[in-house]
Write a structure and sequence with these properties.
Elements lengths: L3 H9 L4 H22 L3 H8 L3 H29 L2 H24 L9 H12 L4 H10 L7 H12 L1 H40 L4 H7 L7 H6 L11 H9 L2 H32 L3 H26 L7 H18 L3 H29 L4 H13 L1 H16 L3 H5 L2 H8 L1 H15 L2 H6 L1
């Protein structure tokens, strides 16, 4: 369609690529921080409610578990309704969870907490909804940017959004010390509410969804790009998107890669405070700062990795990043020197950050007609690594015993990282056989 039709289409499209990227990043930043504000309260609730280790572990894990699983349906829903409604729904659920937590802290903490464990589980589930914003935002940004420019956009989105746990880890103890527990959490709720309002007021769905809402159907990728959108055409159905993505074998290779890189990132973020305290006698504050350094480095590197992936060949980056993770983790597992351990931790974080950026750069090449569905599978199942890997580390730690056991606990991750190498080899062969030459070279 050209001429007056083109002009009409242009008038129907509101918003820009960059504004969509920054607003989606803001929404993810706010949602992802929820886990960081819930986790520090778990030890306090454990003492007050006399929880067993299993009950405490389940309470600590429930936000990550529910948030990871919700990434699948909410990410896929973008293919049907666009990104605004799913992400806004998740932010509102997160707000509800934080409001409930504030009410509990104001009325029951610390002297009247008896019998509140089921309530805490529900609140953890609600707050964990914020984690699911990730897969929604990935698809939302992907439908705004052409495939050739998605690496940088998704790197900014994923990298800056991922800084929220590290920043929360550093700032929350300071706020609690200055204005008290309830005051600090009230301030965070005000920030989350402001983020939600800004996102709701200013975000726009990608051009394809706007044109469909205006009664126009646009299946021409070139025209979508000309109107400021992506060259990806959604399938229009969440179920179809999930089915289409699941039917492509490469989707499951990317799921495994993200299970290792992002699931590993979550696992290390969970494990490192205990490691630093048990291995080197770090205080809780020092261990938090060391963990925040790992978290923030991985997030910032993810931005740089995404931008570089638009300009440089990433053909060998998969192997290189997984080898960096494996070797650095092996050094960490065997080291008994603080400086070496810190350097190894940062190297692991760099490898994870780079890999997290690359995985979603590859999605449009492998699953161009179901980016939302693929993002749901990859973001949801991949993030479960943060729920699965720590218990395995804990088993090895207990088997070895002593302070050194916390270092040896990293050894299972070395094995997991090395297990990706034959999958990378298979994916290269599959892409050469099943993708167009240009797409295979880009992948």
């Amino acid at each position: 369609m050209t001429g007056s039709g083109e002009t009409a289409g242009a008038k129907a499209v509101r918003g820009t690529r960059n504004s969509a990227m920054w607003l989606a990043t803001l929404g993810f930043f706010g949602g992802f921080a929820g886990v960081s504000i819930f986790g520090p309260l778990v030890p306090k609730f454990t003492d007050l409610l006399h929880l067993t280790p299993f009950e405490a572990g389940l309470l600590a894990a429930i936000p990550s578990l529910t948030g990871s699983l919700l990434r699948i349906p909410f990410g896929a829903a973008v293919d049907r309704v666009g990104g605004k409604r799913p992400l806004l729904a998740l932010l509102l659920l997160t707000n509800a969870g934080v409001i409930g937590l504030l009410a509990l802290l104001a009325t029951s903490y610390p002297g009247h907490m008896g019998g509140t464990y089921p309530v805490l589980m529900v609140l953890g589930m609600l707050i964990g909804c914020g984690i699911a914003t990730f897969s929604v935002g990935i698809a939302q940004v992907s439908y705004w940017f052409p495939k050739r420019d998605q690496g940088g956009a998704l790197g900014v989105y994923g990298g800056l959004g991922n800084t929220s746990p590290g920043l929360s880890t550093m700032l929350l103890p300071i706020a609690v010390g200055a204005i008290g527990l309830l005051g600090a959490y009230a301030v965070w709720f005000a920030v989350l509410l402001a983020i939600t309002i800004v996102y709701a007021l200013f975000i726009k769905d990608a051009p394809w969804f706007q044109l469909r809402a205006a009664g126009q159907r646009v299946d021409d990728p070139a025209r979508l790009v000309a109107l400021g959108g992506s060259d990806l055409v959604p399938r229009g159905s969440a179920v179809e998107g999930l089915k289409a993505a699941a039917a492509i074998p490469a989707t499951w290779a990317l799921v495994f890669f993200y299970f290792v890189s992002f699931g590993g990132f979550l696992a290390f973020t969970t494990w490192l405070p205990s490691y630093w305290g048990s291995m080197y006698g770090s205080s809780l504050r020092e261990a938090g700062l060391l963990t925040a350094a790992f978290s923030l480095l991985a997030a910032v590197v993810r931005v740089a990795g995404g931008v570089a992936s638009d300009r440089l060949s990433i053909k060998y980056a998969l192997v290189g990043n997984f080898l960096l993770m494996a070797v650095a983790t092996l050094v960490l597992a065997m080291s008994d020197t603080f400086a070496v351990s810190l350097a190894a931790t940062l190297a692991v974080g760099a490898g994870m950050g780079l890999q997290n950026a690359i995985v979603f750069k590859l999605v449009p090449s492998y699953v161009p007609t179901a980016v939302g569905g693929a993002s749901g599978w990859i973001g949801g199942i991949g993030a479960l690594g943060g729920f699965v890997i720590p218990p395995v580390m804990g088993f090895v730690t207990g088997a070895v015993g002593g302070s050194a056991g916390y270092a040896r606990g990293f050894l299972p991750f070395v094995v997991i990282a090395l297990a990706t190498l034959p999958v990378v080899w298979w994916l290269n062969r599959w892409s050469a056989a099943h993708l167009p030459a240009a797409a295979a070279e880009a992948a």
